[in-house]
Amino acid sequence: MRSGKDKSAVWGYVIFFACIAVIITLAIPTYEYAKQKSGGNIGVLAVAMLLVIFFLAGLGVLVDVIRRKLTYENPLQQIRDATERIAKGDFTVRLNLDSKLNFSGYDEIMQNLNVMAQELSKSEILKSDFIANVSHELKTPLAVIQSYCQLLQEKDISEEERIKYAQSLMQASKKLTELVTNILKLNKLENQQIITDREDVKINAQLEELIVNYIDKIEEKDIELEVDLQDVSVNSVAGYLEIVWANLLSNAVKFTENSGKIKVTAKQVDGKAVVSVSDSGCGMTPETGKRIFEKFYQGDTSHTQEGNGLGLALVKKVIDKLGGSISVSSELGKGSTFTVTL
Fold first, then answer.
1. If you count Cβ atoms within 10 Å of the first and of the last residue's Cβ in the chain, which end, N or C, has fewer?
2. What is the set of domains in the chain, with CATH numbers?
């Protein structure tokens, strides 16, 4: 199959040779007619043929000008106008591809410009949504900090109230720190093209160490913990994997009600490391499951004070960068299971 550029060149050659053929075809009978009328007068024949040639050549030039106008100048002007609008931040521009028969290289450029403008438009929407979400998430802890700072300035508050306000300040500042940290981590991952510094990482050892950090909370909620960790190693980045396990374990503890159950497993399947974290918590609907890895999305609004909706987005980004996959199986009211394959 010929490319658009090849097709355009072929049609140009066809039109050129067609014009030459028409000129020759008309010139021969015109010469015979002029010869007959002039009685073979060379001077008259020369003038007549010269006029005919000039006329036909002019006609050919006119046809070529029209062809160039339609196939080159008009598309080129559309491309100039479109790129100028895109450069000014207008990503709604779309170019019409009318050349179905003569699909040229310019049409390919216009088609690519349409795709680029569409993708830039999506990126702009995501950027606006991201800024709006960040602003909203920042406002909440900042408002809490400002409010309790004002209360602490009161002279007639008791020591008990002062401690309570200080604890609220600490909690708000921790949430703010976590938000900023997650944003920085996401930004770093999104801008990092190649991950280096890989090493052999014992996943079972990582999970054992991280589970210890949540033992107090697990015991406080009287959660039954089942752990089945086989000896599993992967060539990866230890720091990134810790982000994944910490977020999954934290969510499991957070969404599991008192006297619930959490199960953590790690095993080798067909040469791949498979880790799953299950809980008997509130679960989620299929609609929520489809959006659970989006930035700032929180399906269970009852726990919004305990997170900022960036944890699972960060987990997904890390897994994608490491070349693995993550899936979620969940049923409303019956818990969730997150499975990571590396």
1. N
2. 4-120 (no CATH), 136-191 (1.10.287.130), 199-341 (3.30.565.10)
